[in-house]
Automatic annotation (TrEMBL):
NCBIfam families: Rid family detoxifying hydrolase. Belongs to the RutC family. GO terms for molecular function: deaminase activity. Gene3D superfamilies: RutC-like. It comes from Flagellimonas pelagia. PANTHER family: 2-IMINOBUTANOATE/2-IMINOPROPANOATE DEAMINASE RIDA (PTHR11803), PROTEIN HMF1-RELATED (PTHR11803:SF58). This is RidA family protein. SUPFAM superfamilies: YjgF-like (SSF55298). One of its GO terms (cellular component) is cytosol.
Length: 126
């Protein structure tokens, strides 16, 4: 049986999906873009700030499900410009212990929702 996870501390979905779905001990988190949930506005202009907001949104969803970044086993990063990878990776890396960091792929894409520069999704297991 699946349980839907939603929190007001992360942006509301902008389509027919939920922030996350919990099935047994596995949490599937929808891609998070840099929307500030307190204002509903995009964080723009600095890829580090955009990445941080996306990660903070993911953190809020993990917390709502009773988890932390230590529970993350897989993440996917979609970026608009691979030249920004180092800056994105720098911010992303602050949320994980290098020894226990999850599996990950990073993919450059033509466009993302609301034409943002970064979107990150995760899978976590209790």
């Amino acid at each position: 049986m699946k349980k839907i996870i939603n929190t007001s501390k992360a942006p509301a979905p902008i389509g027919p999906y939920n922030q996350a779905t919990l099935i047994k001990d596995t949490l599937y988190i929808s891609g998070q873009i840099p929307i500030d949930p307190s204002t509903g506005e995009l964080v723009e202009g600095d890829i580090k700030k955009e990445t941080k907001q996306s990660m903070e949104n993911l953190k809020a969803i993990l917390e709502e499900a009773g988890m932390t970044f230590e529970h993350v086993v897989k993440s996917t990063i979609f970026i608009k410009d691979m030249h920004q990878f180092a800056q994105i990776n720098e911010v992303y890396g602050t949320y994980f212990d290098t020894e226990t960091a999850p599996a990950r792929e990073t993919v450059e894409v033509a466009n993302l929702p609301k034409f943002v520069n970064v979107e990150i999704s995760m899978i976590a297991v209790k």
